[in-house]
Specification:
The protein is an alpha/beta fold and 232 residues long. 42% of the residues lie in helices and 16% in strands.
């Protein structure tokens, strides 16, 4: 599952699941560019794997385009930037503030669109590319936990992925999503899962690294659950 010679950009990778994804790609041989909104976080993770850091806001299209032009060739894009599980209010949709809606759509959908659109033409021209989007089980199915705004943005990115995968597959480019279940940092211990624990960044990273490998060249447009068996 070597990624020797490949250049990977992982967004939102200065903390949490992003760190596990960066570590897995670097361990497979990729040169990793670590993005985060905060430069110090990106720099710390990049230094730990011998990569480079680049701070930019994925919702700022002009900033994304400038950053990707500065990086140059990108073979692998992991759209991981998102709002942490403890970073948004859990509220019923009927009680939600419409001013809050754009926060979720801008980051979870437009952030994915900005980054992917900026790298896709180059991948197609070179005849090889991998795009993986970090999603959530909340986007695959309804849950009574009052996170409809979060789920809507994530589900939008999945719909985008499924259609674009049809457009770019003939060019050697795949796009998949990793749908995460309960991860470390949320309440509880995951003991009710068939695999009785919460997920880790390493769990997510292992799946992302496989989807970026040659072994996954015939997998595209798919949503891969990584959830400890909690949802089947």
């Amino acid at each position: 599952m070597t990624l020797d010679g490949r250049v990977a950009l992982v967004t939102g990778a200065g903390q949490g699941v992003g760190i596990g994804i960066v570590e897995a790609l670097a361990a497979a041989g990729a040169t990793v560019v670590v993005n985060d909104l905060f430069e110090d976080r990106a720099a710390a993770v990049a230094e730990s794997v011998g990569g480079t850091a680049m701070a930019f806001d994925v919702t700022d299209r002009a900033g994304v385009m400038a950053a990707i032009e500065a990086i140059g060739r990108i073979d692998i894009l992991v759209n991981n930037a998102g709002i942490p599980a403890d970073g948004f209010p859990q509220v019923e949709f009927k009680d939600s503030d419409p001013d809050l809606w754009s926060t979720f759509v801008d980051l979870n959908l437009y952030g994915v669109m900005n980054c992917t659109h900026s790298v896709l033409a180059g991948m197609c021209e070179r005849g090889w590319g991998r795009v993986v989007t970090t999603s959530s089980e909340a986007a695959r199915m309804g849950m009574p936990i009052r996170i409809s705004l979060y789920a809507a943005g994530k589900a939008g990115a999945i719909g985008l992925m499924k259609h674009v995968a049809h457009e770019v597959g003939r060019h050697g480019v795949t796009w998949n999503a990793v749908s995460l279940g309960g991860m470390e940092g949320i309440p509880g211990d995951g003991s009710r899962n068939p695999i009785p624990r919460h997920g880790t960044g390493a769990d997510a990273g292992a799946t992302v690294a496989f989807l970026c490998s040659e072994g996954a060249q015939w997998i595209t447009g798919q949503v891969i659950p990584v959830n400890g068996g909690a949802i089947t």
